[in-house]
């Protein structure tokens, strides 16, 4: 089973700054199988990025994903107050089918 | 636009069986997607429980496999979760979700229910 480790656990930044969130996999993950989600308090997870770098429909271009192999990154440029949330990376493995999530990074906007 | 809605008892006794249903609207459960259950204990992260295809094929998280059964009812456009021998550790917000296969671009959960809180307590 592939384990995803996200860092940092908590990130506290000011509006207008850039956030860099890391997701490291215990084994190589195909880029097409890596996604990022945003979950605000009391809300359902929302898909941000799929295929490691493709933005989901309606997601602002301030959000971008990159990486390959075992290291993936979610970058949020020009932070806004409404970006406060927990962010999860998730991978899909096909043999056998299995989905795993990272433990999450909490982003606080000061 | 596909919408998912979970339903079921919010309280289950220890050693009992948790039973939830996910109703799919705005689309057919017989589309080329897998349908999953994901849970989130209060204040914690997300855990995939298992999935089903409209044909009835299933895949389960190995850590829960011995206690989980997921089934589909195409006539009602819904799928269901049963989790047996529950303990307090199974207390969580349970989500149903659609998994999208957009080969070769990406694979992801694109649609989620609102979630239903299930508490295991006597």
Structure report:
The complex is a heterodimer of chains A (110) and B (122). With 110 residues, chain A is mainly β. Helices cover 0% and strands 60% of the residues of chain A. In chain A, strands 2, 4, 5, 6, 8, 9 and 10 form a 7-stranded mixed β-sheet that branches. The model of chain A has no long low-confidence stretch (mean pLDDT 95). The chains are: A mainly beta (110), B mainly beta (122). Chains A and B meet through β8 and β9 of A and β5, β9 and β10 of B.
What are the defining features of this structure?
heterodimer, A: 110 residues, mainly beta, three-stranded antiparallel beta sheet, globular, B: 122 residues, seven-stranded mixed beta sheet, four-stranded antiparallel beta sheet, 11 strands, 54% strand
In short, what is this structure?
Chain A is mostly beta strands and 110 residues long.
Secondary structure elements and their pairing?
The complex is a heterodimer of chains A (110) and B (122).
Chain A: E1 4-7, E2 10-13, E3 19-29, E4 34-39, E5 46-50, E6 54-55, E7 63-76, E8 85-94, E9 97-101, E10 105-109
Parallel strand pairs in A: 2-10
Antiparallel strand pairs in A: 1-3, 3-7, 4-5, 4-8, 5-6, 8-9, 8-10
Chain B: E1 3-7, E2 11-12, E3 18-25, E4 34-40, E5 47-52, E6 58-60, E7 68-73, E8 78-83, E9 92-102, E10 106-112, E11 116-120
**Content of β-strand of chain A:** over 45%
User: What is the tally of beta strands of chain A?
Assistant: 10
* Helix residue percentage of chain A: under 10%
Treating each run of at least 4 consecutive H or I residues as one helix, how many helices of chain B?
0
Helix content of chain B: under 10%
Q: Could you say which overall geometry of chain A the principal axes of the C-alpha atoms support? A: globular
Topology, number of strands of chain B: 11
**Count of DSSP-assigned helices of chain A:** 0
Oligomeric form? heterodimer
Largest sheet of chain B: 7 strands, mixed
Structural class of chain A: mainly beta
Unreliable sequence segments of chain A: none
Span between termini of chain B: 39 Å
Gross morphology of chain B is globular
Radius of gyration of chain A: 13 Å
Nearest-angstrom radius of gyration of chain B? 14 Å
Largest interface: A-B, 25 and 25 residues
């Amino acid at each position: 089973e592939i384990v995803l480790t996200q860092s940092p656990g908590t990130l506290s930044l000011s509006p207008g700054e850039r956030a860099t969130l890391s997701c490291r996999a215990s084994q190589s993950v195909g880029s097409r199988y890596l996604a990022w989600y945003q979950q605000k308090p009391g809300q359902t997870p929302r898909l941000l990025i799929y295929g490691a770098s493709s933005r989901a429909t309606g997601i602002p271009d301030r959000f971008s994903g990159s990486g390959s192999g075992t290291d993936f990154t979610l970058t949020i440029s020009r932070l806004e107050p409404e970006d406060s949330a927990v962010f999860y990376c998730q991978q899909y493995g096909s043999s056998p089918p299995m989905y795993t999530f990272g433990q999450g990074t909490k982003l606080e906007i000061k | 636009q596909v919408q998912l809605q979970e339903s079921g008892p919010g309280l289950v006794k220890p050693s009992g069986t948790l039973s939830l249903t996910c109703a799919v609207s705005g689309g057919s459960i017989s589309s080329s997607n897998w349908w999953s259950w994901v849970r989130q204990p209060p204040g914690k992260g997300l855990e995939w429980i298992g999935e089903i295809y409209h044909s009835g094929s299933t895949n389960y998280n190995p850590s829960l496999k011995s206690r989980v059964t997921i089934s589909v009812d195409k006539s009602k456009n819904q799928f269901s979760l049963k989790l047996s021998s529950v303990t307090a550790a199974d207390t969580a917000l349970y989500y149903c979700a659609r998994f999208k296969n957009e080969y070769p671009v990406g694979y992801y959960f694109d649609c989620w229910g609102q979630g239903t809180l299930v508490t295991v307590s006597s």
